[in-house]
Amino acid sequence: MAVLWGILAQLAHIALLLAAAPLLTGVVRWLKSRMMGRRGPHPLQPMRDLLKLLRKRPVLAENASAISRAAPYLAAGAALAAAALVPSFARGMAFAPLADLILVAGLLALGRVAMALAGMDVGTPFGGLGAAREMSFAALAEPALIVAALTLAILAGTTNLDAIGAAFRDGGLGLRVSLGLALVALLAVAVAENARIPVDNPATHLELTMVHEAMILEASGRHLALWEFAAMLRLLLWLMLLSAIFLPFGQAAAGAAPHYWPLGLLAFAAKLGGLALALAAFESAIAKMRVFRVPEFLGAALLLGLLGAVLLFVSTRLT
Amino acid sequence: MLTMLALLAGALLALAAAAPLLARSAAGSRALQAGTAGAGLLMLAGGVGGLIGAPATLTLPFGPPWGPARLALDPLSAWFLLPVGVATLSAGLFALGGVHGPEAPRRLAPWPVFLAGMLVTLLAADGFTLLLGFEAMSLASWALVAHDHAQAENRRAARLYLGFAGMGGLALALALGLSGGAGGALDFAALRAAPPEGLRAAAILALVLAGAGSKAGLAPLHVWLPLAHPAAPSHVSAVMSGAMTKVALYVVARFVFDLMGPAQPVWMGAPLIALGAASAVIGALRANLEEDGKTLLACSTIENVGLIAIGLGLALAFRGADLPALAAVAAAAALLHALNHAAFKSLLFLAAGEVLHGAGSRRLDRLGGLIHRMPVTAWAALVAVGAAAALPPLSGFASEWLLLQALLAAWRVGDLAFQIGAAAATALAALATALAAAAMVRFWGLVFLGRPRTPRAAGAEETGGAARAALLVPAALTIAFGLLPGPLLDLAEPALRLIAGAPAPRSGLLLVGAAEGGARYWPILVALLLAGATALVLWQVRRRAPAGVARGPAWDCGFIAPPSHLPFGDPATQPSAAGFGQPLRRMLGTSLLAAREQVTMPAPGDPRAARIEAGFHDPALAALEGPLPRWRDAVAAQAERLRDLSIRQCLGLSFGAVVLMLALLAWMEAR
């Protein structure tokens, strides 16, 4: 029976992802507008935009190859697969044994490479510029993520997300400085990976400052909808990842029957709402940094992550 | 199996001897290349047979004056036969497809000798045979690097390579001499019986790293590799990068895991980890800055060799710290990555060769848009690019996942300095992996995507036949290795037992696991999940969206319409090789590789074009090209003085030398 509930929870999780990703983006935009004193679009607006874009026929450049047509599907599929692995409202979903932090990083890299190649496909200057910047920023973001994973792996003994969450929930870890540093490193990586302020501005079409938008400049119709959807899924994934690692509370137990799920869903919605509020407040409070300051930002995250690991070595030696 | 492989080495040498005759006709050249492709198949069969069957030894009826030459096929040799076999098979097929008439014998004859040298190195069971094979491999590949000696840069590459090969051979000979067994015996059994300790072990490790490590391309002795590997014909580059570096790593592994005995301290692994991490970062960063496609691939080889070296070093350290299960994980990562890299790097070099043949250039700035003209090459190369960028579920991800798991567990070695060093190595390995992904996107995107940058690239042609098979075979292997790392590790079990003294990490048809209830990787399920998610997206989109696409001109950012002599648009309005590398050149290149940029901007109203110049220096090359020639000149000037000696002084010199040697002999007898 527990296996069946695990499978059902996994299917519900995927359905939840498809619905929650546009909603989350809408909520963050609405909150940001409110904080800036505007009325802001309805939180369902991104969903409506997606449905509108889906109905339009894409226009491809004359020399676009199959890459332009295949990459959006692969990127959205990779984002969906990665998000399907990160626990949301329940533990012990059917894919839990697969849910490895490094695998999630690999799937995100797959989506990134697909996007960079799509940006280079037509041979326009902006596409290539955005691809070069995206891959370069990722070159610093990825080690920061892995170093943060090092701290988590030392404390939990594994890189499996469910097991890390379990180690945190049991409270055996306590409050540690290393965890705080790993959290800061992960937050910086999350900001960079999702092209949020201060690394990139998700709302901009001002050409010289953009990274993410530059690569999908040629996309339209359903392809644009897929790129947007993949970006929304990534944002959801990162918030889920942070809450699954650092706030693993209120989730339904592994193999729990569906009537335990509403409580988990409620806790999940509260956690996402809190993180969305924090993100909106953070983005409203600071300005975007120059593109060539981003390496310093990510380098600092990497060093903080390393410092966390070193502190952990020293502290385990003292106790 | 061993007898078959020994006969194969003999057959390859016979093929080389017959090469001047065979080179006279296209049919003869084809026969020779078909023979080498078959040799690759036989090596694969021999490797699998050696891993399944019991270890075998063979004493040849000939050898050096002091005893017979010995060959052996144990699991470690057998495993390393697999990467050599994969690379040789693909390269042989590619060369077979590239024969269009009589060939130059100097291009044909060293090729089988090169393969035979690698085979003999892997099979050698005494020091002399090992050196013989290693030197045959070095010299034959040098001849192939120098085959196109009309170009000055190839001559420079060959000269540098010869210098490094000579230095490497000397260092290996000294290492063997230092580790000599009782009575100076050089067969491996005697070496194992007298394992070195302390300072002697450190000296042997340093010499092996200088000798075999330089051949593998470990920093700081990597500088010859980005020059020499691209200078050879493409199929030889493929084998040099895919297989020869692995043979060099095999020699390192043979020394540190086998010949130096099992009781090595933890710190023996540290130099391998440090050099590996440095190589990985330098190689991957250079791959983002190089503007020649094959040089870029050679730099990526340095990166991958670095990752394998990290794995070997970790295995050594874990074994020293008495953590055999973790040693098995690290060794599994290294062995698996050696095989995976052989497949995808051969494929990339062969694709670069196909592009060179079809579009007439290796320079990224003279290619572009080739996916339209050379689709099979493009898609096959994309598989290899995905593996080199460590994307799941391809082969590179499986081995780098294992390597990261081993690095994440490195803190279990209790020493604080080692823990901190391992944390830094983790960050560097992750940095190198991400840099490699950027380099691979740059390579594939600039060569195959965008618009043609030259008329020659616009009219590129693809060859079919054997050359196409040469691309498809390693592409299929890259996918298969990515999906089935578990069975591969089961196959590698005896080799892992030899290295780590423990069985393989938990693995099966579906999964690879890190030790002790740690994380698992299920490649086939991941592939299914990815396919399922993509299918779900596709289905949902197709249900709602209208079919088909409309075509229109690309928005070229407001550039004016190109003149009529540029039918594909102005190639300068798309990213160039230097432009794509710019962010990383500024972020990391200025500090690590002394990269610089200079913009020359004419005054307003001046119609001259603005120019941007960018470049970098590898610090290792600068160190090598600075003091070394000065020392050589100083030594040469001193030696010149000998020419002015009188006959009396000459005789005195000879007499003194004889007395000195006799005294040395007497001293050694007395000890």
TrEMBL record, chain A:
Predominant place of localization: membrane
Presence of keyword Nuclease: no
Segments passing through the bilayer: 12-31, 70-89, 95-118, 139-161, 173-192, 235-254, 260-282, 294-314
Primary enzyme class: oxidoreductase
InterPro entries the record matches: ComplexI_Subunit1 (IPR052561), NADH_UbQ_OxRdtase_su1/FPO (IPR001694)
Pfam families in alphabetical order: NADHdh
Subcellular location: Membrane
EC numbers on record: 1.6.5.11
GO molecular function, one term: oxidoreductase activity
Annotated keywords: Membrane, Oxidoreductase, Transmembrane, Transmembrane helix
Highest taxon of source: Bacteria
Protein name per Swiss-Prot or TrEMBL: NADH-quinone oxidoreductase subunit H
Source organism of the structure: Roseomonas nitratireducens
Lineage summary: Bacteria, Pseudomonadati, Pseudomonadota, Alphaproteobacteria, Acetobacterales
